Amino acid sequence: MAYPKLTKKPGAIETAASIAAGELSPLEAVDAAIARIEHLDTHINAVVVCDFDRARDAAKGMDKSAASDATPLFGVPMTIKESFDIAGLPTTWGHEAHRDNIATRDSAVVRKLKAAGAIFLGKTNVPPDLADWQSNNPVYGRTNNPHDHDRSPGGSSGGSAAAVASGMVPCEFGTDIGGSVRVPAHFCGVWGHKSSWGIISKEGHDHPLMAGRGAHDGALSIAGPLARNAADLDLLTRLTSERPLEQRRKPISQTRFLALVDHPDCASDDAVRGPMEAALEALRQAGASVDLTSELLPDLRAQHADYMRMLNVAMARGAPGRNGQRATATDWFNLLDIQYRNELAWAKLFETYDFVLAPPAPVLAVPHRDGRVFDGEIEINGETVPGASGLCWAGLATFPNLPSTVLPIGATGNLPCGMQVMGPRYADLSTIAAAEAIGQVLHS
Question: What pLDDT, on the 0 to 100 scale, is given for residue 2?
Fold first, then answer.
């Protein structure tokens, strides 16, 4: 099958600069993005809720004289993950029963991005309950990977990554608890950022069963951007963060990395290992210090078991706990204590290392399947392993609440491969800057 050619398109900052310079109007930017969606999305099915008329009206009403430093996304068209509320649009989380759940107000992230000048064209596809590395549901159907339509773009922010990778929009916003920003970025060959837990509000990102009453942000779960470059990730993170963030930059030649290529719970497929090892060698050649082991590293097998227990309790709102019973308050507080000790161990490690490098997933984009990836098996170097075992790389940064930036590092065949750059908690802009510096080494 011949796929539509994926061409490079301007990023968010570049688009805003063209508008500010008078080379492009907000309406022209919006119309161009709509045209790309209408051309490409027949085959990809990423933008599943379209709001084109309101987007064009918003663009027509934008006065260029209103652009300022406070509106760095002035006139920039974008989409957002379906699970974020936008007033007047459905929020279904992939459930037919919630097809008529229409949001009455914008989520916090949408409000902040609109205030910065962004124009929303619609919403992108997700799996039911945001709980798969695919983006396929009874309401909107299946989203295809732009690089291979027989494969998944990832999940649960798969529609987000596919929209960015295909060139439909310059940037997006997703959420991540089990790699749901990082894995789609990795599968689709774009940039993604898992923010430090708690810095970006998830108000207005509530399951439809909450009936608009509002809910706690949720343990482990974060909101984070996807884009085509590091500069856009940096801007989107700054615009949505609830707290000031500092950025520390170091030359690659003065940076000390700890690189993890395999996990005790899951090996890495050679299609991932190859680009990872090539990237690490390029960093060594650029003068970076790259260690492959460290006694400072927490017990990764124990961390993964604790992460999976907390993940399951958080996703099921209390069930299951140990022995198939609902988790008690005592169970939850014990988990919080374990998580805190794990955070301290990582903080100690980052006194020695600047960043930790790892795969976002043990495999490249997986073929489509009817059931969830986590309920089936994945193939690693010719052997089948439980699909859920791949979550070990997601939990690496999720359990200790750390930031992690994914950048594209290469490809195996026609499938892209990414790498995550982890850093100390709240060092979000630093991991983005480090990822940018790594990208310059690999792609210059």
Answer: 39
| Active-site option among 81, 123, 194, 202 | 81
* Confidence (pLDDT) at 318: 75
pLDDT of 201: 97
Q: What is the pLDDT of residue 322?
A: 55
CA distance 51 to 77: 11
The one-letter amino acid at 140? Y
Catalytic residue chosen out of the listed positions 135, 152, 160, 180: 180
Specify the pLDDT at position 214. 81
List average pLDDT for each run of 10 residues in the chain, which is 444 residues long. 56 97 96 98 98 98 84 98 98 98 97 98 98 98 98 98 98 98 98 98 94 81 98 98 94 98 96 98 98 98 97 82 77 97 98 98 98 97 96 98 98 97 98 98 92
8 is catalytic: no
Note the pLDDT of residue 4: 44
SS (H, E, C) the chain: CCCCCCCCCCCHHHHHHHHHCCCCCHHHHHHHHHHHHHHHHHHHCCEEEECHHHHHHHHHCCCHHHCCCCCCCCCCEEEEECCCCCCCCECCCCCHHHCCCECCCCCHHHHHHHHCCCEEEEEECCCHHHCCCCCEECCCEECCECCECCECCCCCCHHHHHHHHCCCCCEEEEEECCCCCHHHHHHHCCEEEECCCCCECCCCCCCHHHCCCCCCCCCCCEEEEEECCHHHHHHHHHHHECCCCCCCCCCHHHCEEEECCCECCECCCHHHHHHHHHHHHHHHHCCCEEECCCCCCCCHHHHHHHHHHHHHHHHCCCCCCHHHCCCCHHHHHHHHHHHHHHHHHHHHHCCCCCEEEECCCCCCCCECCCCCHHHCEEEECCEEEEHHHHHHHHHHHHCCCCCEEEEEEEEECCEEEEEEEECCCCCHHHHHHHHHHHHHHHHC
Does the active-site annotation cover 180?
Answer: yes
Concerning whether 156 is annotated as a catalytic residue, the answer is: yes
Q: Which of 135, 156, 157, 196 is catalytic?
A: 156
